[in-house]
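Researcher: Here's the sequence for the chain we discussed earlier.
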Amino acid sequence: MVIVFVGCLPINTCLSQTFDSAADGNWVSPASWAGGVAPAPGPGGGLTNNGNFININAPHTITKTANLEIRGNSDLVVRSGGTLIVTGDLTFRNNSRVVVESGGFLIVEGNLTNNNNSDEITVDGVIQVAGNVTAGNGSAMNGNGTLLVEGSITLTGGGSNAGQINLFISALPVELLFFEGTFNKLKGVNELVWKTASEINNYYFTIYYSTDGFVWEPIAQIYGAGNSNKTLEYTWLHKNFVNGINYYQLSQTDFDGTTVVFPPIAIENSFNKQLLYRVNMMGQKVNSKYKGVVVEYYNDGSSLKRHQH
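Model: Thanks. This is the structure I predict for it:
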């Protein structure tokens, strides 16, 4: 007697299904998928069963409302020309396999989390994240694609076990609200102040100094906040300036070495002349408490335009 056992090993094989996009539409709409069957969102917004194969084909745009979770032993492929939009958070679980082909777009309007040891994420297209990105211990995102992040990036773990993102990372530049300088009579220094509304991948600022506005030398380097979504103010004091007009310029450098240079400012340090009055851009006389752009007029006939706050 021959006994034949018929079954599935592992069990995930029995549960695996393939879903191919067939038209633009919502993730849960049967009309969006070939065969008229949509992948169920499952608990927490993830895929119902392990072993699902999800293909977002060209030229379709599939929108997943709220969160999406790609579970272990599941495959998500965004083909070239295809677009997947997740309006909430997106999570890649351990043993999930995700591919964004060149020309494919994965847009996350919330946060993106690559869980611990999730190292089968390949991006040759574009992943755009409006929130934050977290890479868990032992996780990895590889490929020749681009990760666009508006929030912060957190790599958890340490040493060789730290999360990795081996992609070209592009972010919004530092949003500089102002950069200005004044002579602080009490301290006898030129006080430089600048404020940022947000910072992403900001490594450091550099202050350059000039006595003629043409030849510049770096005189200070101040570390940035890295990633920040709140308003931050920086101050630096310069002691060794000349009697006359002193010029300052601010630059900002990302962790990847990209540098942005901002317009220079000037501080009048001619101590043998006196301020007569200052006016705003409407020609109205204002005092030192006025906030905005002013022009200061001195007894030697010179003037200086600057920003007061």
